[in-house]
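Good morning C.,

I know you're traveling, so I'll keep this short. The sequence:
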Amino acid sequence: MRRLLAYLALSIMVSTQCAALAAPASEYQVKAVFLFNFSQFVSWPAGAFPTAASPIVIGVLGEDPFGGQLDAVVAGERVGGRPLLVRRYRDVSQIGNCQILFIDRSETAKLRDIVRALQGRSILTVSDIDGAAGSGVMIDLVLVGDHIHMRINVAAARASGLVLSSQLLRPAQIVGPGEG
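The tokens, ready to paste straight into the viewer:
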């Protein structure tokens, strides 16, 4: 019952944000709202931000499937007093200050190298590449029918010093290394 309530709460947040964008929401409009909402359900260690006033940076690595949708979702938003900022990266070596990183499907062939390059950094990695969570990505957004489900690799998040809220974990499928 708790899992259902947590899932409903997260779904309502996503639905509310998507309704503001205009109906019907595209897959990447919904995923953009997920990325924004993750900023509210993750705790980063103090060293993850250069200063107390630094923004929460949501990065997109590879092709940008969001267009301006991600920018629209975070425009004017603040989480924990921090503004949100979107940055785009062509290569993992360009990533500096970043707290949430969406790894696009265009990076599928490089996924293991990307995960290795980010190891030990307090960056919440998110992707919709098939099997991403089993490859070390922390959150895999999986489209099933017309719903997006989360597969979360808790061990990968913990290894990077991130704490994921139980509200985020309840509606998700928890996976480990090598699992889907």
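Safe travels,
E.
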